[in-house]
Amino acid sequence: MDWWELEPLGAPPDPDPMGGPASARALLRLFGHSERDVRVTLYRDHHAWCPYCQKVWLWLEERRVPYRVRKVTMFCYGQKESWYTDLVRGGMLPALELDGRLITESDQILEELERAFGSLGPGMTDPAVLPLRQLERQLFRAWCQWLCVPSRDGSQESSGRAGFDRFAERFGLALVADPGPFLLGELSSADLIFVPYVERMSASLAYYKGYLLRERHPAIDRWFAALERRSTYLGTQSDFHTHAHDLPPQMGGCHASGSQEQRHLAGRIDSGPWPILGPERPDPETSQSAPEDAASVALARVVKHRAVLLARNPLGPDGMDRPLRCALTQLISGRSCPPPAGSAAGLRYLRDRISVPRDMPLHSARSLRSALERTAGLDPADPMASGEPIPWRHRRDQDPAPFLATPTPSPPRGSSR
Ligand SMILES: N[C@@H](CCC(=O)N[C@@H](CS)C(=O)NCC(=O)O)C(=O)O
């Protein structure tokens, strides 16, 4: 299909970006208030990846406090904006302006937000919340110890796993201590404190250790499933592929166990087919089935940014235009469309650089990755060719800068570009 045929099949833009479901692309959230009522500016990363930003972002969404967003580039993706380092020395994220006053440190930010707008359930300094905050840090340290410290022999690998399992078990017990899937009855700040890293644990341990957090800990699975019924969380939720490849530069490396199960799961996370455990077992990435518009949302996102996507692809705009249209034809119509010989590497390059939730939601990314992978497999010359490897010391291949320029204009009808 040509671009002019594809474009109208993309999902229409969100009719209510200021009050509808949370989105990584929204820059102003009003929740029915007027713009004059906005007292808060959240500084967070372009990539929608920073875990400490996710915590504050989720709190604002759950508490429905009107806010603006200003996005900043994290060091590993590109050049940090100088206006931001002028504002925050060192350039760390998140930061938040409340009535013109700048606050850094995510926990401090939440405490100040609670003072200004009221807490979300028991507050950050509530005696029931303080030990849970401590438990979150213990779980975090056990995870780092297992994932990021290289194991010279098998015993270190199994002690890392046992150490992590012990604290995951404690988190599971805390979850069942009160009725309902959340920590202290209704969803509260205590849950939001756990969300960012437990999401990253679930993804990274599947990829690097072959360990399925949700399958092993039913209370954690119930907690995730309850979060996944909230549009707030769904707007901020990433996926296994994104986390598996964004964590190494942030964590200083992630170490694979090398077990058969680990290699199998890593292969499925990278190349599909998805869901990674097949249709018979519960999906360890999400309890939500694909929405009807998953493919058309993905299509709309690619059409919007096609000029930059083509320019940044190793095949270049001329080499990648037709293969990309083939993959999008597969995505939106289900029809196989063999690409020109030699395009598999370019298609897989793009497959590996879809970032969730920055670019699109989890199921849209899955549909697009599947279409790219299936089309690459039809390359008549080399159907197994892989894309350029994903760097693990930095992710400057994901630099947001080129995407921040003006959007691609509509192609004239009949043109194939
Ligand atoms: N203790 C801080 C930690 C913040 C932090 O580590 N932020 C990271 C991102 S997750 C950062 O800004 N790193 C600089 C960069 O990557 O540009 C908090 O809770 O806010």
> Overall pLDDT, averaged?
95
Uncertain spans: none
| CATH hierarchy: architecture of the largest domain | Up-down Bundle
What compounds sit in this structure?
Answer: glutathione
User: With helices defined by DSSP (H or I, 4 residues minimum), what is the helix count?
Assistant: 17
- Gross morphology: globular
Q: Tell me the helix content.
A: 40-55%
β-strand percent reads: 5-15%
SSE series:
HEEHEHEEHHHHHHHHHHHHHH
Terminal residue distance: 11 Å
Main-sheet strand order equals 1-3-2-4-5
Number of domains: 3
Alpha-carbon Rg, integer: 22 Å
CATH topology of the largest domain, by name, is Glutathione S-transferase Yfyf (Class Pi), Chain A, domain 2
CATH class of the largest domain: Mainly Alpha
The helix-and-strand class reads: mainly alpha
Major pleated sheet: 5 strands, mixed
Number of strands: 5
Brief synopsis:
By secondary structure, the protein is mostly helical. It has helices at residues 3-6, 51-63, 82-87, 106-117, 130-148, 154-176, 189-209, 213-216, 218-227, 231-236, 240-251, 260-271, 294-304, 306-312, 316-333, 344-351, 362-376; strands at 28-29, 40-45, 67-72, 95-98, 101-104. Helix 6 packs across helix 9 (218-227), helix 7 (189-209) crosses helix 12 and helix 14 (306-312) packs across helix 15.
